[in-house]
Amino acid sequence: MNKTITGAMILICLLAALTGCAKGEPENSLTVFNYGLYIDESVLSQFEDETGIRIKYEEAPTPEELYTKYKSGAIKYDVLCTSEYMLQRLINEGELKEIDFSDMQNVSDIGEEYWEFTRSFDPENKYVMPYFWGTVGLLYDKTKVHGDISSWDVIFNGEYAGDFIMPNSMRDAYATALKYLGYSLNTTDEGELREAQELLLSQKKDVSAYLVDEARDEVIAGNAAMAVVYSGEAYYAYEENHDFAYCLPEEGTNLWIDCWGVTRHCENVENAKKFLDFLCREDIAWANYEEVKYASPVKSVMARMSEEGLASDAINPSPEKLAKCEVFIQLPEETTDLLSSLWKELKAQ
Amino acid sequence: MNKRSLLAGPYILWITGFTVIPLCIIIKYAFTSRDGGFTAENILAMFTPVHLKAMTFSTLAAVICTLICILLSYPLVMAIRRLGLRGGSFSVFILILPMWVNFILRLLAWQMILSNNGILSMILERLRLPAWDISNSKTAIIIGLVYDYLPYMVLSLHNSIDEIEDDLIEAARDLGANGLRIFFRIILPLSVPGLLSGIVMVFVPSMTSFVTANVLGGGKQQLIGNVIEEEFMVTMNWNLGSGLSVILMVFVLISMTFTARNDDPGSESKVW
After folding, report:
1. Which of A102, A264, B29, B187 is the most exposed place for a label (fewest CB within 10 A)?
2. In this structure, are residues B58 and B225 in contact, taking their beta carbons and an 8 Å threshold?
3. What sign does the dihedral B46-B47-B51-B52 (CA atoms) show?
4. What pLDDT, on a 0 to 100 scale, did the predictor assign at position A15?
5. Can you tell me the mean pLDDT for B213-217?
6. Is any Cβ of chain B less than 8 angstroms from the Cβ of A342?
7. Residue A74: count of CB within 10 angstroms of its CB
8. Per-residue DSSP letter, B115
9. CB contact under 8 A, A4 and B5
10. Looking at the domain covering A134-253+325-348, what would its CATH class be?
């Protein structure tokens, strides 16, 4: 019996050694890590053809899973794309390399305002490059609401009781309440958070469901009059059927921005820079926009956009409305703990 | 070393790699705080009101689900028994057929049926019956749990009840017992092993499930499984998530030893 166990151990060790050996990669390659369905995959082979750099492409569905997979260290990723609060965490942990964006020709086509947004977590603009951005707002069915929807008020005043969907993600849910109350969505003030909690607790009886991915489809299916969604989802619904509209609430909301960064494992920074620059090239940025349908920070994409897209708050919100939006920053641990205990209390009610 | 223990090799490898080692890692996480020191806080956290509430709801949902499964299974299994060998195995086949479809897809189908604009409300409207809005409610979760785990109860009961000799029932009838008496004095006692393994197979997974509550509860109802999932995926407090998992495992173990102790030692309880 003992020998069996020893045999098993030897086998495990052998397997481990074998995977360890697989390091002999060709030098001219780049390991890219991105969210699923977040690029037009044909641009990857185009990049390979143009530069001769071979791309290994890996995907993860959520920021948390992307982070876990990255941290496990099984694969050495060279460049990765994720959301601002996760990038902030990676920067704090020293996982990203400084990049000099100034000598990258196409990167200069990224609008100044987007560098301004990323400065909230990358103050000197030396770690990350904006890729796509958007807001969190209300997707609604015009045939089911009365009057204009312009404020978070409609989900807190009981008018649409049982007919709206809240986000099933902690920070997005509290962001709606905090913004409605006029506070910052990055607040660390316990009183403000508790006030938001009171509001959400009293709202819960009116909420039809807390959903993330299915929220849009529930509105399209006619099961709810409105839902809190990401702007890209709303634009998708609008393209399906023009009865759907998107409201960027006047009190302001969360603005999210997904960016690329180069990891500390990257040995050939020039290749990584080539790839990032390539993503900002006019034809490539447009192809990715067409695939993903989120707002692009690249000016040439905005210039080519249809009037419909430009008129939509989902793709091209007005600067006055944007001024009230905030990017999530990573909260200190005490605040995160408080928030998650409040969230659990809300969900358990 | 004989050949038989060699055959156990793959099993030992599997169990070590995918059960024993992960379990040790979970236990290690459960007893450490986020900065690495020893703590019992993650374990004790189960007794805070929020967690207790989720735990109570989970237990309640699992108990109700198990009871409904038992009540539905007995008449069904009795009917299958009466159908004889060929008809019976066909009925069992029909019953487990939905299990070939992925479990998430089946839940999504239930979501379609129960939603505000769904098939259920359409039928009620056609029949001019009052609307019964159970979408995203506790009832919807229990319907989903029962639908998912009913086949396990039916299969294990079917195994014990099908083995009961016809002679026993005929003898009882000869001696003047009516159907009800036959059921309570013969069928029920003889089906206890199947019933117990059915209870374990329904109670444990419904106690620990979280997907059903996510899909059919609309995120408004928290089972303890949902709390644990959020600790891992959202809050990323793996230590607390592990602590709660360990307590849940202990709870499940206790309830299982309880059913095992009541098991008749003479008869072998067969699962399939």
Report:
1. A102
2. yes
3. positive
4. 52
5. 88
6. no
7. 8
8. S
9. yes
10. alpha beta
Contacts of B236 in chain A (CB under 8 A): 64
Please answer whether residues A210 and A347 qualify as being in contact, where contact means their C-beta atoms are separated by less than 8 angstroms.
yes
Q: What number of CA atoms fall less than 13 Å from residue A197's CA on the CB side?
A: 18
pLDDT per position as a tens digit, A33-81: 999 889 999 999 999 999 999 999 999 887 877 888 898 888 999 999 9
Contact B176, B199 (CB under 8 A): no
Mention the CATH class of domain A27-133+256-312. Answer: alpha beta
Q: For residue A157, which phi and psi values (nearest 5 degrees)? A: -95, 5
The domain limits of chain A are 27-133+256-312, 134-253+325-348
Q: Is B218 left (phi over 0), alpha (psi -120 to 50) or beta?
A: left
CB-count exposure of residue A133 (10 Å: 0-12, 13-18, 19+)? buried
Amino acid of residue A323: A
Q: Is A201 helix (H, G, I), strand (E, B) or coil?
A: helix
Q: How far apart are CA A225 and CA A163, in angstroms?
A: 5
Which of B125, B194, B136 lies closest to A208 in space, CA to CA?
A: B136
A7:B136 CB<8 A: no
d(CA A242, CA A76): 45
Are B224 and B60 within 8 A, CB to CB? Answer: no
3-state secondary structure of A316: coil
In this predicted structure, what is the pLDDT of residue A308? 77
Per DSSP, which regions of chain A are E strands? 29-35, 54-60, 79-83, 128-141, 164-167, 207-211, 226-230, 244-247, 255-262
Sort out which chain A residues have CB atoms less than 8 A from B219's CB and list them.
168, 209-211, 347
Q: How buried is residue B95: exposed, middle or buried, by Cβ count under 10 Å (0-12/13-18/19+)?
A: middle
Q: Which domains does chain B have, with CATH numbers?
A: 46-262 (1.10.3720.10)
pLDDT in tens, B2-12: 677 788 889 99
Place of tokens 């539905």: B72
Predicted structure pTM score: 0.76
Q: Is B85 exposed, middle or buried (0-12, 13-18, 19+ CB in 10 A)?
A: exposed
Residues with Cβ within 8 Å of residue A78, at least 6 apart in sequence:
A30, A31, A32, A262, A263, A265, A266, A267, A268, A271, A272
Closest CA to A296 of A41, A111, A93: A111
Structure letter (DSSP) for residue B187: I
A27-133+256-312 and A134-253+325-348, same CATH topology: yes
Q: How does strand A255-262 pair with strand A128-141?
A: antiparallel
Distant-in-sequence contacts of A151-155, Cβ < 8 A, 24+ apart = A151/A180, A151/A249, A151/A250, A151/A251, A152/A176, A152/A179, A152/A180, A152/A249, A152/A251, A153/A180, A154/A226, A155/A203, A155/A206, A155/A226, A155/A228
Cβ under 8 Å to B: A residues 190-209:
204, 207-209
